[in-house]
Each structure stands twice: as structure tokens, then as C-alpha cells.
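Retry 2 of 3 after timeout on previous attempt. Resubmitting C-alpha cells to design endpoint.
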């Protein structure tokens, strides 16, 4: 079982409009409502790949109830979310059909009490016993300690469970110091962490700060990996237009599935890059275009070198 942790789950709502214009009224052509939050998106992609996945984190209020109802519709996915008093947040994505651009509005999330955080920690400790890997993804809701991910990484490492971290800001900085097996920042998050805007230098610096391996998302230019086994860059054959929301989460699913299947790094990066690109063609985060993914797997270019033994 793969465990994904989403401390700030969300109900994702996607609006499509013909053309998004500031200070104007818009007629929405389509509305989609799906369970969300970065780790939930990762879990949905993993389930679509055939993996058994357990989702944990927090859910509360009427929005949390809708989110859990939607999760129950996903085959291969187990709901282990911890109930809280505050309402689960909503995220609003507005897709401009003329340009293909997406505007994202993210609510902050519910206030988590010390008792609710303690209940989550007890649940997390028990879930690790049956986990082959764990992903810690996304922002922290109010009330959760800024060093939460660092603590969760240490617990997973003590249990012998490999852990992937995908967050930003101070939670990322503290989490990296706890020595996760893999960190998956985007280029901006990596630059903020290391102070370097040169991706290869920044990935290597992130490893020196504690991460065992670093895979950076470079948007439409693919992925850059720095690992103990070597460094590689993987890129799709062409830039695809669509909704990029969730592309990074699809990449995380590819990396995590490759880790538990013990694939070589080149195959992990091929899968992650193809999934990320195929997710751009899907209507919402947590999904990917299966036909495009199958076709792209044979066309991803991976360049780099393994380190000498």
C-alpha cells in the first residue's frame, strides 16, 4: 500500500469560461467538482495506475463530506482521513478556453486544534505499518506546526518507510533537513530553498541540505534529477497546451510508483514526465489522458549520466 498525506485537503472546483477578463462578468460554460489537495491528486493518479493507495490528512464540514463521497467513487483508494471540526477548504480553478490559461484561487483551510493534530499523529503512526512508501504533499492548514513535515519524515524513516516530500517555503526547508528519500520541488520552490536560479546547481545544493534525491519540475521543459546514482534531465517531445494544475502531482505519482516498483531512475523519470504531460491534457488535477500517456512513454528523452561506482 502507498500512503499519501494531504494535511490541507480540498474540494477542487473548475470553471471554464470562454475568455477570462478582469473586472467583467463571465458566463461559465462548464463546472467540475472533484476531491483535491496535492496528496489526494497523487493518490488518484496512483490508483489509476493500478496501485493500492490510502489517503490520510484532514477533512471536515459539509465540504469535507462531499470530498469523502467523491473519494469513495475511486477504485483502489482507501479513505483514512481524520475528521476535524473546521470545514475543508475549496480551491477554484478558472480555465480561459481562448488562451488555455488557468487562474487558481486557494482557500487557507480549517484551523486544526492540538487534539486534532495529536489524533492525526496516532493514525499516521498506525498507517505506516502497512505502507511501502509515503508522500507528504502540499500546504499546511492553520494550527499545524511549521515543522510538521520534518517530524512526519523522521517517523517514516524510523519505521523504514521511504518518504517523498512535495511542499514549499519553510515547511520544505525544515523537511529537507529531516533527510527525506526524495524531494520534488518546482523551479521556484527550489530557488527559494537554495537561493540559486540555476536548476542543476540548486538540485545539488538541496541534496547537500539533506535530501537523498531531488527531482525538480521545470514546467513544460520536463524534470531534472540529482540522485546518488547520477543526474538526468527528462523532457517531453513537445510542449502541450492545456491545464497545468495537477501536472506536478502526476509527476509525484510517477516517481512514487517507480520507487515502490524499484525501477531504474531513467524509467522513473520517463514515467513521471509522461504522466505530467498527459495530466496537462486532462480536464482537472488528479487525472491524466491515458492515450497520451501511453504514447508519450515511448517518446520521452532522458539525458544524463550515472555516477561512477
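Retry 2 succeeded. Sequence:
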Amino acid at each position: 500500500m502507498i500512503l499519501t498525506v494531504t494535511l490541507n485537503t480540498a474540494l477542487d472546483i473548475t470553471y471554464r469560461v470562454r475568455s477570462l477578463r478582469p473586472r467583467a462578468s463571465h458566463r461559465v460554460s462548464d463546472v467540475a467538482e472533484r476531491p483535491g489537495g496535492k496528496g489526494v491528486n497523487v493518490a488518484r493518479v496512483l490508483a489509476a495506475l493500478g496501485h493500492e493507495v490510502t489517503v490520510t490528512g484532514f477533512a471536515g464540514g459539509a465540504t469535507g463530506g462531499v470530498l469523502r463521497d467523491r473519494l469513495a467513487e475511486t477504485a483502489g483508494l482507501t479513505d483514512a482521513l481524520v475528521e476535524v471540526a473546521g470545514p475543508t477548504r475549496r480551491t477554484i480553478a478558472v480555465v480561459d478556453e481562448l488562451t488555455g490559461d488557468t487562474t487558481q484561487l486557494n482557500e487557507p483551510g480549517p484551523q486544526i486544534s492540538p487534539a486534532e493534530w495529536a489524533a492525526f499523529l496516532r493514525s499516521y503512526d498506525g498507517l505506516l505499518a502497512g505502507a511501502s512508501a509515503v508522500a507528504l504533499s502540499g500546504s499546511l492548514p492553520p494550527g499545524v506546526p511549521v515543522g510538521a513535515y520534518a517530524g512526519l519524515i523522521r517517523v517514516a524513516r524510523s519505521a523504514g518507510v521511504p518518504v517523498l516530500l512535495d511542499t514549499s517555503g519553510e515547511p520544505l526547508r525544515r523537511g529537507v533537513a529531516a533527510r527525506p528519500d526524495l524531494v520534488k520541488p518546482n523551479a521556484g520552490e527550489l530557488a527559494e530553498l537554495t537561493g540559486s536560479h540555476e536548476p542543476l546547481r540548486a538540485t545539488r545544493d538541496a541534496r547537500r541540505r539533506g535530501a537523498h534525491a531531488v527531482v525538480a519540475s521545470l514546467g513544460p521543459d520536463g524534470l531534472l534529477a540529482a540522485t546518488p546514482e547520477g543526474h538526468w534531465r527528462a523532457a517531453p517531445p513537445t510542449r502541450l497546451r492545456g491545464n497545468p494544475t495537477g501536472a506536478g502531482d502526476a509527476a509525484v505519482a510517477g516517481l512514487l510508483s517507480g520507487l515502490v516498483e524499484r525501477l531504474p531512475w531513467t524509467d522513473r523519470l520517463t514515467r513521471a514526465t509522461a504522466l505530467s504531460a498527459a495530466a496537462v491534457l486532462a480536464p482537472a488535477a488528479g487525472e491524466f489522458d491515458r492515450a497520451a500517456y501511453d504514447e508519450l512513454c515511448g517518446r520521452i528523452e532522458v539525458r544524463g549520466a550515472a555516477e561512477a561506482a
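Attempt log closed. The longest strand covers residues 28-36.
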